[in-house]
């Protein structure tokens, strides 16, 4: 059933008039009955009102009173802008809910805004659409109609993302006070803008005590640029405000949007008992002071160097009872990253770290978990203005009662990027010898034992009672699991024995709705044999994501582009006698669309030099795509890959393949806004051959002085590049300006008439690897690249 | 009686050891008696221990326990460094007090530091000395011995100021938590550094809830440079810290140190019910946010344009129930000054003003009391870096329920230095027509009447109940006098009728100690007739401050300098036949010493061209001096006045006098540190004649881009300057670089062979006045002076 939205002006303006009338009436009553107190409570009719379209919904909202339930009929609600206003009470909120959880879908150009007091929304599923305003859910209708004590709970927001990734929005905007997002599943935002944002502009929005609890924040894909946070609380301009937002008991599962999974930018917030599971980023106390980060679990599982822990800027934070497991990120992404500040920093840059306590945390099998003076960049004074130089070292910082355990010794638990003179270490314990440059007496090597309680969860065999009693430490009353720390039972590290029960590091069942299955069962992949071009076109269109199309040997003449909008494998049945796809299509052989993931195996692709092998859509590349080429041959194209500005590839990989006779190779160079964005995350060329590429074999660009992202990756190993670059006007073979991670080793460069193979960025640790170079110019290294300032 | 100090190392280190032992013991007790709680309380012997010297004092401190009183014997305690440590209780503090209030004096190189818990000091009088450390009184002995719940009360600190004004100290340093300065009289600090300073560096010192109550802050002289605050709470580097200092019920009487009488630089402080009496400066919320300024009284009495009210920077302040009487300061010193900020300001500059509420204040006979976007300096972009340009206008600022009453209409109650787009006005009332550029509907002209309750105190004849109910306004529960604001009885302005009793704006008896008489009776001025040089020298040395030396007609040959260290008038008995002082002294005729105030009337001074007429001491000019020359003649000196770097004259005035045949005139040009300091505050030449001055008639310098001070004053009116400047190498007659207030009108400049009379600073409103100029060069105007940045 699809319910058509009927355009209707919402009635919250009348609501405001009514509110004012009530106010005046109340005043009058108070004035004339000063001895006899009169409380005018509304008669609680507590209606259930079922609505089938937006007109009925608006009418129901307009007429609702405390205790009412407005029930959205099952089906798809398309293009609806819900304005939910009114005045409930603590005991009798006004509820707006789906008829049957899991059967009410909000789709199309839709959003939902709260205004009033004690309003609850539940059991809605947002999908197949995006907001036409700046937010999907907002706790404010306008500046005069702000929500307080309102709740968005038991809902799903799934890939409700803008068609254009460059268009900015938030999925949940917090305004007002005492609002709540709970028990919801939120996933798949791929456009510009934090998923959830707390606003503090205006006195109505401070001291907010918002509750963000028990949610399942599912995967947020890499964004390839900044502004991909999952939660942002405040901003630099309101970073002086007392916020008091509570983020408790949430799961952050692969929230990979950018370097800040959570970006704290205000004061007195509390982050407790959340699990960060393989999320490529950190909980970052970016601005604001006196925040609490307690009892959180950070799990890296050694999956990637991008998975971090807690990064600290500013003053007065307490980081206690946290548990870090197999975190191997470094610098910005280390388990604990204490930054250097900019002296007298401007409001939106980096204040010095002072008065921070890091106590009673456990670091299990992490690599160099304590990194100090991170971001120190005095060496870049030549390319950065003074106002960007982070030279103010941490002051009055205390590390105490922490536990570092490594199954295999971690000889450098501390990494320091500057002198360490403002950090005190007291009663921290490690089970191997510390060979770091910094060897404080307060990091003590002893041979303690640990017990494995469950997957990834280790505790001390016996409590270590050598606990340092620092200033205000009596306020650390509980451990990771909420068990008491007492004078008689306390321990170093995040956990005090005995642990009750048999806790799990991650129990996915604790988070999100009580009705939505996060891990939908996958259809098994079909294998579809194809022997003609027409069949290939038809089956490609019909296939389910994950299917494999198997081509018989032979030649396939394709006059039109093949669109790819799902995961599809195209492979030759006989790898010895590869199928040959010959394209006479106009613009491109394959058109990569959002979520397209093309895997070519044992295929020969040939063009007529008039088209590219792969291109993206020109616009609305709302989600990432992937290209994986294996044991294949590509020849006679203009470019191998041409992309559009807003497009983003997560992975481009080439393995055991040959590219020849093309004008250019892979052109990931259209995102030139110099705001830190770029067109692909990972570009990997392995054991492949480039022959007679007229221009560059790769042009991959990232501009702007930004540190929010992984920053792009080039890995070239075992390739041979010959006879290329002849027509390259800049005399260069690989353009990689601004890409952070570049590794080019064990390749052969031969007979390429260029001056430069590639320019490497010394400050990012890029060095010319071991390559065989013959008549092919050379690698150049520039220590400090001058980038455009973004701030 | 003078008690000699005996040098003795204080024993607080042992105290700490004992404290630790007790702690360990307590732990052991707790560990072994988990079921049976044991509290080891000290036996309260409650001793009174009278001590006569520092050795006895140290011993008594070492042995003291809760309830003890350590009594300092009457007399002068010289060169004592008191370290008062120990552990009292709330009910039984340890008390250190003077034997008889008013008879125990702390003198010489002395100080007092607290460390511990519940310690009280009372009945001491600090005078005739200065601290050898960085503070006179400190609530901290060292970083491990900080005071909590300690009290300094019923004490006097009087001119306990550093001999060298450039040496920085504080008289009271607050550290720790819950400490108190109360019922004390504090006056006469003339050196560098705020009188009282609250420190927030380190978690031990935040959430401090210090009480600064019922004190009498007596006159603090003009400093002629920054760092002359009476109270500073925090600093820019700790301006993010929650402070919660309470400054209640204090009198600030002529606290003229600099533009900030109080400099707030932290969060959540409260300034309530203080009286600012003719203090040349403002209560300035310079850094930090969410501060409360409630129920204070600002009295200008039209005495000076330097007397201000409240100046606001940053976010979230509530300015309520304040009463402003005859404040005529403008810009930085207006009754309410809301500043423009610097976009994304660095930590130590100016943040934008946002979310500020100015409500229920009364402005009685003030001039243009509301000044908005103060400090806007976009016009100075040429001489200032971008990081100094205050272009961020106030945002989300609310003026509501304020009352402006003028006996004589103030046609421009609002002055705006930039566009006003972020300020909302609601239900403010004024009794004359508002002809300001900004004419908000929320500033309503009505012809209301007022009642005079007492001197300077006016209330509305009838409450004006048209009160705007803004967000959180229900928290404004009381008026200026603590009377309730209720739904049934409320009013516009600071005061709700009926007022109880007959309150006074200023009741000096409410402040300071219960034993010290602030207004000491003055000895009547003696008139001393003198007829010989020797007698003059002898009587000058003997005279009391305020005395008048009357010279018979005749010539006095003086071979030595005459020192002036008090107020002294030297006058001719016969003004028609003036006494002539002929100097052959080496360096100077008169040597101005600290607190010297020389008044010359009807005197002829002549030198031999080898010495100056007036000089200051070369160093240790601890306090200001004044020179007042009337109906006198000065000739044949090198310079009329030569000063030393650290010296400061409050007033230099010349009236109906003649200066001739000198190399130079008044040389107030030695303070060249370019930190905003300068050598004199007011220089006034009236109806006088300068003839044959070889160089400049005045060289008066102030360097550094600073706004903390009045900035120096030149007023020249009705003078004749002839035949001067012939030997001036820069071809200029008056050097006044950096002086803020310059008025040169109705003078005659004739036959002075210079190019430039003076360079005027356009941005400060300096314009060439109406002067007669003949063969004397011209005035130049430079719009924006390039000054040295100090930050």
From TrEMBL, chains A, B:
User: InterPro entries from the xrefs?
Assistant: PbH1 (IPR006626), Pectin_lyas_fold (IPR012334), Pectin_lyase_fold/virulence (IPR011050), PL-6 (IPR039513)
Which EC class is this protein assigned? Answer: lyase
Which GO molecular function annotations are given, in alphabetical order? chondroitin B lyase activity
Give the UniProt keywords, A-Z: Lyase
The source's domain of life comes to: Bacteria
Which EC numbers characterise this protein's activity in its record? 4.2.2.19
From the Swiss-Prot or TrEMBL record, give the protein name: Chondroitinase-B
């Amino acid at each position: 059933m699809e319910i058509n939205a009927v355009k209707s002006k919402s009635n919250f303006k009348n609501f405001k008039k009514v509110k004012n009338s009530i106010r005046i009436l109340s005043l009058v009553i108070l004035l004339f009955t000063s001895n006899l107190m009169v409380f005018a409570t509304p008669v609680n009719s507590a209606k259930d009102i079922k609505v089938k379209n937006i007109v009925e919904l608006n009418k129901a909202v307009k007429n609702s009173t405390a205790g009412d339930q407005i029930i959205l009929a099952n089906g798809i609600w398309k293009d609806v802008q819900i304005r939910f206003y009114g005045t409930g009470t603590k005991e009798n909120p006004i509820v707006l809910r789906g008829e049957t959880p899991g059967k009410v879908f909000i789709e199309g150009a839709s959003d939902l805004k709260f205004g009033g007091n004690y309003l609850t929304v539940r059991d809605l599923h947002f999908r197949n659409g995006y907001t036409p305003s700046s937010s999907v859910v907002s706790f404010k209708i306008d500046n005069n109609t702000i929500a307080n004590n309102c709740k968005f709970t038991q809902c799903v927001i799934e890939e409700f993302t803008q068609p254009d990734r460059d268009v900015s929005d938030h999925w949940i905007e917090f305004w007002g006070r005492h609002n709540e997002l709970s028990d919801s599943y939120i996933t798949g935002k791929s456009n510009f803008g934090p998923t959830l944002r707390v606003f503090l502009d205006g006195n109505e929005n401070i001291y907010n005590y918002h509750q963000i609890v028990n949610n399942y924040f599912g995967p947020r894909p890499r964004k390839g640029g900044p502004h991909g946070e999952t939660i942002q609380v405040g901003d630099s301009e309101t970073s002086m405000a007392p916020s008091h937002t509570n983020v408790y008991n949430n799961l952050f599962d692969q929230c990979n949007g950018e370097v800040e999974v959570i970006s704290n930018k205000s004061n007195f917030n509390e982050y407790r008992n959340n699990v960060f599971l393989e999320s490529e980023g950190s909980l970052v106390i970016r601005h604001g002071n006196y925040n609490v980060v307690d009892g959180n679990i950070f799990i890296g599982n050694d999956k990637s160097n991008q998975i971090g822990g807690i990064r600290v800027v500013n003053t007065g934070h307490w980081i206690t009872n946290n548990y870090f497991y197999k975190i191997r990120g470094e610098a910005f992404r280390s388990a604990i990253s204490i930054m250097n500040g900019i002296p007298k920093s401007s409001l939106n840059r980096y204040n010095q770290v002072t008065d921070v306590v890091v106590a009673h945390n456990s670091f299990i099998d992490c690599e160099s978990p304590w990194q100090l003076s991170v971001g120190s960049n005095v060496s870049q004074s030549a390319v950065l203005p003074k106002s960007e130089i982070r030279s103010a070292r941490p002051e009055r910082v205390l590390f105490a009662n922490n536990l570092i355990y490594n199954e295999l010794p971690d000889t450098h638990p501390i990494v320091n990027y500057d002198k360490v003179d403002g950090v005190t270490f007291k009663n921290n314990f490690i089970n191997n010898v510390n060979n770091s440059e910094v060897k404080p007496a307060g990091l003590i090597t002893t041979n303690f034992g640990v017990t494995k309680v469950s997957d990834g969860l280790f505790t001390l065999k016996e409590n270590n009672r050598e606990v340092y009693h620092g200033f205000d430490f009596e306020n650390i009353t509980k451990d990771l699991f909420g068990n008491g720390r007492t004078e008689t039972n306390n321990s170093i590290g995040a956990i005090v024995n005995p642990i009750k029960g048999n806790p799990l590091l991650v129990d996915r069942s604790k988070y999100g709705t009580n009705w939505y299955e996060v891990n939908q069962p996958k259809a098994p992949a079909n294998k579809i044999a194809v022997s003609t071009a027409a069949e290939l076109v038809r089956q490609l269109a019909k296939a389910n994501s994950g299917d494999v199309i198997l081509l018989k040997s032979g030649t396939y003449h394709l006059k039109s582009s093949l669109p790819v909008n799902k995961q599809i494998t195209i492979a030759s049945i006989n790898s010895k006698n590869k199928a040959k796809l010959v394209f006479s299509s106009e613009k491109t052989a394959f058109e990569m669309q959002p979520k397209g993931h093309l895997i070519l195996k044992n295929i020969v692709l040939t063009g007529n030099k008039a088209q590219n092998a792969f291109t993206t859509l020109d616009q609305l590349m709302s989600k990432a795509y992937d290209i994986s080429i294996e044991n294949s041959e590509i020849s006679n194209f203009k470019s191998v890959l041409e992309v559009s500005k807003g497009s983003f590839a997560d992975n481009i990989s080439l393995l055991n393949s040959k590219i020849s006779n093309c004008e250019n190779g892979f052109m990931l160079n259209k995102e030139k806004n110099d705001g830190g964005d770029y067109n692909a995350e990972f570009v990997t060329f392995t054991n492949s051959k480039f022959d007679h590429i007229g221009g560059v074999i790769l042009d991959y660009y990232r501009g702007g002085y930004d540190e929010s992202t992984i920053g792009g990756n080039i890995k070239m190993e075992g390739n041979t590049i010959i006879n290329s670059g002849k027509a390259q006007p800049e005399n260069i073979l690989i353009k990689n300006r601004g890409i952070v991670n570049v590794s080019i080793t064990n390749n052969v460069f031969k007979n390429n008439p260029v001056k430069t193979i590639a320019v490497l960025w010394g400050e990012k640790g890029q060095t010319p690897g071991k390559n065989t170079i013959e008549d092919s110019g050379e690698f150049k290294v520039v220590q400090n690249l001058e980038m455009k300032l973004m701030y």
